[in-house]
Amino acid sequence: MQSVAIKQNMNVESIKQAIAARMDSAGFTAWILPLQFEIQNNCLNLVAHNQFAADYVRNSYKDVIENVAADFSLTANIVVKNANNNIVNQTANDNVVCEYVPETNSKKVNNIIGFDKFICSDDNMFTVAACKKMALGGASFSQLFICGASGSGKSLLAGCICAESDKRVVMMSGGQFVADFTRSLRDKTVFSFKDFCRNCDMFILDDVCALAGKNATTNEFVQLIMDLRDAGKSVVLTANVAPGALAGFDHHIKSLFASGLVVDVVAPNASIRRNMLVRSGIDSNVADELSKHIAADGHLVNGIINKIKTYEELMGCRVDMDIATRLLGNLLEKSKTPLSMVKSMCEKMCVSYDEICGNSRARRLVKARQMMMAVLKNVTNLSLTEIGNVCGGRDHATVVYALAQIENQKTSDLILNAEMEDLIKLCK
């Protein structure tokens, strides 16, 4: 009996290896590896945790499984078992065996507000209108991609869509999706995790950049998007940059992200920053002055509001401009320096300052350096040598070449022209 069991285990491992050799690694890891392999009466039973998983494997990989089983002189069957270990014929999902439990309720996201609380500038009217249409349903587009710099309000708009929609909404951050998918693989609840993500009318992922470089997770998310869209459901994505500028994703995935409606959120201008301060209860004269010296970053504005309100609560007095200047001295913008401009542009283009100053010749970094040099030439009075020093110690000839390259490309590249205009506005 022991030798029979050993032989059977060897056959199971051989079968797994044979199936893996005929599939892509991501599909095998996500769908086949979590199945329980059993050999009984010359039949290979692949036991799934729920009916959804069984149906998906049967529809997608049945031919591969049956061909491999035939090589071992076996028939193949993809089944689901109940609590008594009996094969059942189900028509609905059964997640009793191994259930995925989300760490946060999909509709109870921290700090969610409605659109009436979102302060909209003229630049963002189209974006907000598109978000409202998505929340109300009936939009002609099934996928919405919201892009904007950090602190521009894209996550807030995604939360508004979640709060205003009366449909079943699943909202996750990119980091949460990565963590929960990884946890579901470890806990063998991946099929239940897939069910949870698909059992909705709208799926919102805040910050797709968190998926960059994580191939298995990205492949799972791409499959999720396609399944949701095929089922007539809505998808909302956010990122710091437009789909075409995402780093760490191949062309097919960036094309998929761009296939819906892409809208951008403009960072809060001085008027919007003032309104945010006044709405929070800060004196209007203080708000007038602070709004002129705060960076265009909604996160920073909220941090300043929290600091002022906490001071007033603890000290028992209203904050005037003198107190605000002392209290917020390190947060208020002075005149912009070339170094601060370069660092702001690094954040805008999703590259690190160390990469810009480094020796890498990666295409995206070379182009980013050249664009930064051209912007500095446009908005400052720095010499070419000084521009090179700010951008990692580049010599005079390198800066001259960079400026010529950008000028040549601008004549035929409308996207580059738009990107340059955005960077120039950022640094002025």
Kindly summarize this structure in a few lines:
This protein has 428 residues and is α/β, with parallel strands linked by helices. It is 54% helix and 11% strand.
Secondary-structure topology with pairs:
Blueprint: H1 2-21, H2 25-32, E1 36-40, E2 43-48, H3 51-71, E3 75-81, E4 87-88, H4 125-136, E5 143-147, H5 154-164, E6 169-173, H6 174-187, H7 190-198, E7 202-206, H8 215-230, E8 234-239, H9 251-257, E9 261-264, H10 270-279, H11 284-292, H12 298-315, H13 321-327, H14 338-348, H15 353-357, H16 363-379, H17 384-390, H18 396-410, H19 414-427
Parallel strand pairs: 2-3, 5-8, 5-9, 6-7, 7-8
Antiparallel strand pairs: 1-2, 3-4
Q: How would you characterize this protein structure?
A:
The protein is α/β, with parallel strands linked by helices. The protein has 4 domains: 87 residues, DnaA, N-terminal domain (GMP Synthetase, Chain A, domain 3, 2-Layer Sandwich); 150 residues, 3-Layer(aba) Sandwich (Rossmann fold); 58 residues, no CATH class; 90 residues, Orthogonal Bundle (Chromosomal Replication Initiator Protein Dnaa, Chain: A), CATH 1.10.1750.10. It has a 5-stranded parallel β-sheet with strand order 6-7-8-5-9, sandwiched between helices. Strands 1-2-3-4 form a 4-stranded mixed β-sheet. The chain is globular and about 85 Å long.
